[in-house]
Amino acid sequence: MEPLLSVKNLRVEIPVGTGMLKPVRGISFDLQKGETLCIVGESGCGKSLTSLALMGLLPKVARRSGDHLRFAGQDLLGLKERQMAKLRGQDMSMIFQEPMTSLNPAYTIGDQLTEGMIRHQRVSRAEARDRAAFLLEKVGITAAASRLTQYPHQLSGGLRQRVMIAMSLMCGPDLIIADEPTTALDVTIQAKILRMMKNLQAEFGMAMIFITHDLGVVARIADKIAVMYAGAFVETGTAQQIFDAPTHPYTKGLLSCIPVPGKTERGARLGAVPGVVPSLINGVEGCGFASRCPMRQAACGSEPDLTDRGAEHSCRCVHDTDTLRNMEWEAA
Amino acid sequence: MTIIDSNEITTAPSPAQQMRRRALRHWGFLIGGGVLGLIILMAVLAPFFAPHDPYAQDLSQRFLRPVFLGGSWEHPLGTDHLGRDYLSRLLFGAQISLTIGFVTALISGVIGTTLGVAAGYFGGRVDTIVMFIITVRLSMPVVLVALAVVALFGGSLTTVVLVLGFLLWDQFAVVMRTSTQQIRNQDYVTSAQALGCTTTRIILTEVMPNILNNLIVIITLEMAHAIILEAALSFLGLGVQPPLPSWGLMIAEGKDMLFFEPFLITIPGIALFVLIFAINLLGDGVRDVTAPENRN
Amino acid sequence: MQYGPAAFNTAKVILMLRFLLKRLGLAALVALTVSLISFSLLFLAGDPAVALAGEAATEEDIEAIRTQYGFDRPIPVQYVAWLTGAFTGDFGNSYYFNTPVIDLISDRLPTTMQLGLAGITFALLLAVPLGVIAAIRPNSLIDRFALFISVVGQAMPTFWFSLILIVIFAVNMGWVPVSGSGTWQHFILPTIVLGYFATPGIMRLTRAGMLEVLRADYIRTARAKGLNPAKVLFKHALRNAAIPVVGLAAVQLGFMLGGSIVIESIFALNGAGLLAFESINRNDFPVVQALILLFSLIYVLLTLLADLLNAWLDPRIRVA
């Protein structure tokens, strides 16, 4: 079956004073209709720029390139801004990290919810408002109709993020890209919002790309997981594969950082991945993780390819699968 | 592979060094400072430079044109309606403009900074009162009040300086108030208070040094403002009085010959423009050099 | 379901009224203080009767004038008398024309108002588009041009600029009259000078505001909705960038009206500014005093208007 979204070798480059910053260095994946892909990585690994690149919302200075970026049979790389704008909000939409600043303070919630739909689907204001009120209720906002006349500053962060989610659903898109949608929220609200997003996704049958640094969040919603490091995927697989049989040392390191109920003993030390992400100016030589890796060896001086480690499972490491599986994470 | 290595500690340049480096690369700062320095030098050395006595009249030599309009080198910038050497008057006029600028900035700076720092530091009722005074001052039409007062007290350099000094302190007060409010909430001020330092000491040693850069920027702005206003007052006949060679007065005196000898208004006008331009460049430069993050 | 604007909320209306009353009270207090200052200045400067009588007057003349104008009363009494008159629009009679001050001013004020409004319109029409384009394309040719205009504008004395414009457009080209009032052509050069004076500040603020707003997250949200670029720019960016500009424009208009004195004198435009200049030269204090008070009042009311406009533009401060 033709995937909804097929990304091949996507790159983002930003000219900086001393050369070329390469925050996204050739990533590839396929996403089927209704599927959820989680892209996991620490800050600065290029995951947010990946999402902006997919939406065509990169800052002006950034350059996007790749082999293809096929969405619903159409290669987005060749589209003009005008054509891209027709897709945005209508067929693919996005939820941002910062609910406090992502809504325009000067306009009502209702106005901001409806304007995209009015543009894309040429519906009347009243129809758009009905849809907005319906969706606000769907995302768990009470008294939805009267909320439409409120301004963003009158809502809490959690409510604003629900509004953002409702906004992304307005036109019934096939794909939603959510960039750390729960990071700025309280832990208690995080869980509610995640559950709600999962339910909505099932109800409306959308595909979702969920970007986060928090593996705990991933466990609740992912079908597929891509672990991103220094601008490239270092391990991809189904959620089960990544959690049950992590292969790449970085993935293992990340997993060792989260406590597992029943497994982690009280008082035991949680893991940590020491060191920092290498500079991405002018690209990375060799394996980007080598300096932080407990298993580094001479061969890490040249960057390994992403190789198959089972069905749908791949990993970017020079070591063979068995060695990796048997390795116990201990910081270098 | 380029990894940021924490062991490799490079000695960063000190803030003062960084500032000096930025200053030497900042064209506006260098040009503004250079031109202003040159004008100050010319004003100070006017008695030695000036080819003639700026007050010496020679009615047989009226309206001689400048060299570049076919005149002679005897009067490089020509002569005015009383046959006085225009270049000499221009050089001595610089003294007036600069005096006005510096003294006005000094008076208004003292008034405005005192009010602003007090309002920002003490807050509460002091702040309310100062804000009210600032509002009152801002609501008074400067030119009208200045003209009226000069007319009442009689036009002279001293009157003009005093009037402008007592009128142009509003920006000092507004900016110093905001700057002080920001500094006041910093931890080092709180800790100085906790150590039992006196208020005067805290203001002088903790607050003032940190608002100095903003103060310098406002000083340049208000100098320029005062110089323009003096020229305008003198131009309207209610500022510095003849025969003093104020540039505004020179433009007023040349106005009657506007249609025949436009150089009479062009030359002092350009001098005024260049001076203001240089001061503004310097002010913008100081802001960029001392606080590059505030640049837009 | 009902989606119309929220039903009138009595609490909000009361809050709004309180805000208005507080600001009006402040305006009154400011005007009172200004009037006190301008009134005291008159007496600080010496005996108004002496000034009024002229240089050739005898001691008896001065004494006669003193009783005629009531200068022999205690100063506070004179002030209160003047102030109570001012409340009812009675600013006394002009010394020079011997007609009510209020008539003189109401004759001339419309011209100054027209000039001020034309000037601020000119400034906004020039400064806002330039500032917006400069912010969209930083370091472009237009950005540099805008910077040039603002730097030159800040360094150009208005009276000199006026003379240069007169030489070029009135004398050499003959496109507009040199001076005087009467037709709309007489307003062209004064409007340009007055407007150009306000341009640098408004342009810098527009540019800085747009630069900041265009980086805001909600602009990215608007683009993510697929709105067309013009809508993103005008609906989502400009409205937020306009908020500080409104305040500045109001203040500038106040300064312009006060500053019209220079321009009206140069162009012999028969407005309140020229009246002020002539009255100063004629020692016609009642007129000068009334004008100072009037310009102060206008300034305070303009800032109040700006606050109300901002409350309308920015819902965050609407109920504060």
Number of domains of chain B: 1
What's the name of the CATH homologous superfamily of the largest domain in chain C?
MetI-like
**Class of the largest domain in chain C, according to the CATH hierarchy?**
Mainly Alpha
Distance between the termini of chain B: 35 Å
* CATH topological fold name of the largest domain in chain C: MetI-like fold
Named at the architecture level, the CATH assignment of chain B is: Orthogonal Bundle
Radius of gyration of chain C: 24 Å
Give a concise summary.
By secondary structure, chain B is mostly helical. In chain B, 70% of the residues lie in helices and 0% in strands.
Question: What does this protein look like?
Answer:
The complex is a heterotrimer of chains A (332), B (296) and C (320). Chain A is an alpha/beta fold and 332 residues long. Chain A is built from 11 helices and 13 strands. Chain A has a domain at 246-332. Chain A has helices at 47-55, 81-87, 109-121, 125-138, 144-147, 157-169, 187-204, 215-221, 239-244, 249-256, 321-326, and strands spanning 5-16, 19-31, 36-40, 63-65, 68-71, 74-75, 92-95, 175-179, 207-212, 224-229, 232-238, 307-308, 314-315. In chain A, the strands form 2 sheets. Chain A has an 8-stranded mixed β-sheet with strand order 7-8-9-3-10-11-13-12, sandwiched between helices. In chain A, strands 1, 2, 4, 5 and 6 form a 5-stranded antiparallel β-sheet that branches. In chain A, α3 packs across α4. The mean pLDDT of chain A is 86. In chain B, α1 packs antiparallel against α12, α4 (86-122) packs antiparallel against α5 and α4 runs parallel beside α7. Chain B has helices at residues 15-25, 27-44, 46-49, 86-122, 124-139, 142-153, 157-167, 170-184, 187-194, 199-235, 247-255, 263-290. Chain B has a single domain (20-289), classed as MetI-like (MetI-like fold), CATH 1.10.3720. Chain B has 12 helices and no strands. With 296 residues, chain B is mainly α. Residues 1-10 of chain B have low confidence and may be disordered. Mean pLDDT of chain C is 84; it is low at 1-7. By secondary structure, chain C is mostly helical. Chain C contains 12 helices and no strands. In chain C, 44% of the residues are buried. In chain C, α7 (158-172) crosses α8 and α10 packs antiparallel against α12. Chains in contact: A-B, A-C, B-C. At the B-C interface, α5, α6, α10, α11 and α12 of B face α1, α6, α7, α8 and α10 of C.
